[in-house]
Amino acid sequence: MSRELLRPFEEYQKARINFVQTIADLASKSQNIEALNAAGVMALLRPLLLDTVPSIQQSAALAIGRLANYSEELATSVVENNIIPQLIFSLTKPNKFFKKVTCYVFKSVAKHSALLAEEVVKSGALEPLVGCLDEFDTGVKEAAAWALGFIAKHSPELAHKVIQARAVDSLVLCLQEPDLLLKRASALTLSYIASHSEQLAKPVAEFGLDTIIFFLSYNDTQLKRNICQLLGNIARHSAELSAQIIARIQNPQKLLNCLKYPDDIVKKNAAFCICELVNKSPENAQVICDSGGAGILVDYITNVKGDPRLYGILALGFISSFKKELAWTVIEAKAINQLFDALHNELNPQIKAAACYSLGHIGRHSTKHAKEVSDANVLSLMLYYYQDKKMNDYLRDKAKSSLKKIINNCDNLSALEPLLQVSPDKILKHILNQYIKYLKTNNTELKNFIQNGGLQKLQELRFDEKIKSSPIRSKLLRLINTINSYYPPEIVKYYTPEDKADEFVSGAEELEKGEEESNEAESENSEEIEIDKIDQNKNSPEDKNKASG
Question: pTM to 2 decimals?
Fold first, then answer.
């Protein structure tokens, strides 16, 4: 064939190469994407995927991947133009560069939504992607691992399909490869799979737990992040899986040391993992505490601020919730001051709520535990958050619940006095019950209650509008009068407000009067019930209809 005949073909090939390379370069800059899309670039690139020149195919696929990566709209355009089936067909070729770029396109499409990821799966991409995990080239394996991860992350159904395609075994093997980028991608993809449910986490634990735990000590920041997150996602689903991790890890210091790592995300993910482990059983919490975990967690929440604090605070609460010995270990680790700091200074309501939760579980075990918490002046702050209507309901609920837990075990009556006049009735009744419990037989406390101004506050409270309008008014008055009955009438009258002195009745008398009124009311109610029964038996249905008429 003469040179003149070949020249047009050579020029056409050069033009195609120049076109796809230029488009691929332009697509790497986000400011060019909208203009390229408006020019209809997707329809022009599609036929070039079947070009006879491999470099043109690769550049066309790379350009499509970059376009799809930019927005969900362009990723949808890739699906609508039937480009994915063409790419799958091309994966059967032995060209490693094209396989790598094809996996990148699948990742770029699947990352945007579960719907697009489902379209990639429906096109039959899973089997060739899993096949790419067995390729010799580590770049192809890494690209395939990323694509599978962005499919699995969206929903349990998609993650289940990835498992059904036998991806877990290959991903665990990829985790053992020497290439660091491949290790990172494999660990993150396994984490996405395990995050959805116990059913999906079990195969990951079964095939790869020993390998995963081994890399806790690996000296790479990104890999540590992924491994800690992966272990947390396995542990979160059940006590059985968390117990497997504790049993296989052997030395919990490997995990606890991650809380001391310089990188904040490593520390946050390690705290998440520990939180999920100690949440599941007292045995797990005991193992972590026996390894010095309580002190390390306190150091962690001391040295970090903001959102990373959350899992450390929750972990301390979960440890404290199981039994009083573990809660005392947390107290001895100086956790209460740091929990108070989080409650007072953090802006995130979730962190404040977590601090309330943890303090409540520390203080609920005994009077000794409650005293340690109340001495830190946390009760007034919790009450403030509970009463503040601007706070979200979750924080208010946790503050209320924790207040009740601590107050119901608190024998430190001086810590309760500041709450007397400012507490809503639902909290006030618990405070009054504590005074009744500890004042009756304790002369020292009876004297202190007067000297600290508590008895005077109680008399002011008796005539407060808040009490008069309370739905549980009679119950609150009965509690107040029970406390008053512990003192001589003249002392109670002395501390009664001057403008209410004429209404004074001694605690014992008012208590007796209240009981009589209560008994009379009950008697009247019972009589009414009996009369109703008699009337119902006497009157026939016809009589009732006449009466109603």
Answer: 0.83
